[in-house]
Amino acid sequence: MLSNLLCRLLGPVTNTPQMFVRSPCVHVHLVPVAKSFSTGSGDPPKFPLNGYVRFLLQQRPVIVKQYPGITFVDVSRKIAQQWQSLTPQQKQPFENTAQAAMDKYKEELKHFHARLTPEQFDALLKMKQQKLVTRKNLSLKRELTRLGKPKRPRSASNIFLSERMSLTGGTTMQAKLSSLMSDWKKLDDAQKKTYRQLAEDDKVRYTHEIKAWEKNMVEIGREDLVRSKDKSKKTKVKRLPRRTSPAQKNKKA
């Protein structure tokens, strides 16, 4: 809730100079993902690195030492160029190591699944599903930002908060927001009128900008990004087909 409010606070408002703030926040429905999967059987084995990543990790210290002050992007670019210039024979040791790690991973994963209870197996599937949905939505968020989708309009209270944020004391962002919300509630209707008008102006801004943006999306063949009355306003989580855990299969057998 706090992160959503901050996104609203840092979006664009009207042309009032002291209140014009921009943010990369784009409203996309994200599904909370568990930070880790812990069971009585331990954590699942980690997916192994491929050949290129192993080469990258080996070469990165060499490049950084050779070019002091080089940026992360330039390091990655140089290593990618080096990898592309290698012959298949030169790449083979890295690929062989990666394949051996993959074979070990598959075997460990098989044993890990066999130790899971049906409940643990279902929890693991749910976690994987959440990660897939979150990854998809983050990708959409980046794409919408790249395509310049207009920021959503803010409410009167959001505009008030963004205007006063830098002037409010407080050791944490949450403390500042709490103090500002208390100040907002103390304002009478006459004092809130200015902010409500700004909010209405911002709605007009958004209405015009989103229509123009959607028209442009249709012209470039991206109708999938255009709003539709038949579509849900929120991203729906698609359920993965229910799978049977190894423990359940053995029980049936």
Fold and architecture overview:
There is one protein chain. The protein is an all-alpha fold. The protein has a domain at 1-26 and 149-221: High mobility group box domain (DNA Binding (I), subunit A, Orthogonal Bundle), CATH 1.10.30.10. It contains 9 helices and no strands. The longest helix has 31 residues, at 189-219. The chain is elongated and about 75 Å long.
Keywords:
DNA Binding (I), subunit A; 62% helix; 0% strand; HMG_box_dom
Question: Can you name the CATH architecture of the domain at 1-26 and 149-221?
Answer: Orthogonal Bundle
Total beta-strand segments:
0
Query: Any low-confidence stretches, pLDDT <50, length ≥5?
Result: 9-36, 230-238
The gyration radius over C-alpha positions equals 26 Å
Percentage of residues in DSSP E strands:
under 5%
Order of helices and strands: HHHHHHHHH
Task: Tell me about the largest β-sheet.
Answer: none
Tell me the number of helical segments per DSSP (H or I, 4 or more residues long). Answer: 9
Which geometry do the CA atoms define? elongated
What is the CATH H-level superfamily of the domain at 1-26 and 149-221?
Answer: High mobility group box domain
Helix content percent band: 55-70%
Using the coordinates shown, work out and report the CATH topology of the domain at 1-26 and 149-221: DNA Binding (I), subunit A
Q: For the terminal residues, how far apart are their CA atoms?
A: 48 Å
Mean pLDDT: 81
Helix/strand/pairing class, anyone? mainly alpha
Given this structure, which CATH class of the domain at 1-26 and 149-221 is correct?
Mainly Alpha
Protein name: HMG box domain-containing protein
Keywords: DNA-binding, Nucleus
InterPro entries: HMG_box_dom, HMG_box_dom_sf, HMGB
GO molecular function, one term: DNA binding
